[in-house]
Amino acid sequence: MGLGAISLRFDGRWWPxxxxxxxxxxxxxxxxxxxxVHAKSGEEVLDSEQIAYFVDYDIPFPFELRVNDVIAAGxxxxxxxxxxxxxxxxxxxxxxxxxxxxxxxDYNGGQLRPRDILALTEAGDRPPTLYMVDKRTDEFKKxxxxxxxxxxxxxxxxxxxxxxxxxxxxxxxxWRSSEDLSLWDREELEQxxxxxxxxxxxxxxxxxxxGFVDELAASNEELFVxxxxxxxxxxxxxxxxxEVYGSLKGLVPPIENYRLRIMGRGRAVTLxxxxxxxxxxxxTTEDTKEGTVYLISVVLHKPKDSKELEVARIxxxxxxxxxx
Length: 324
Fold this sequence. Notes:
The protein has six helices and 15 strands. By secondary structure, it is of the alpha+beta class.
């Protein structure tokens, strides 16, 4: 399928997993516009004020990258970065980035070896690393390597969190003031979450790309702001999203075989698939004719002035059907 303007992989955009651009090239494309609407004041963020944060990596194992306790990337498929963090950074200040890596079931009995953790840290010339690009000074700065503490025995997974201070010229609402879903009755939360995912699934499965993208409006607006997306390109971007999502008519599986997962320090929730696409979003869809998998992960939240769960963030990937 031709993706048109949906080329770079920011959250909510599509980018073939096996065709990721070099980190610096991706960063340069981020800054094509002169500014976007400021999320708080309505003022424009000038090109000279734009600051972006990325994690670059090349991880040979299944992994999960969380920013401020919300999943930004990962799943059962190993692969390279970079990954933009900005739309998970709601405002300037201290941020957290968490990396979890685990062994596939068919690798060493599902156990990571100490040497695997050492190799992750070294990883040739691409160990997991946090970067910043500051257009005020044209500075491309390495903030820190995300190096796991060594282990002395086999483990099924490793997980570690690092903290950093971010300075960004915007403020996003995101899920900051949303209801604490961890306080809900678990069964009630599951019912509400499954019902909302079923609505989203039905839009996709009926081929209603526009209806589905309409559900992403708030999430996309914060993506545009935090990614400094050129205003003149937004309509084209949305049209391409509608085309891609509209192409999934009759392909999207029912909402079954999932696990409920609360994140965002209690203020966000998702359904993750179990089985073949374990760890990916429950809306993950195969197109066997095209030999393609659409890895669709949606994170929901409940703004305090809303009667229902809404889309907080969405990540989308297109890849081949090599996942087992």
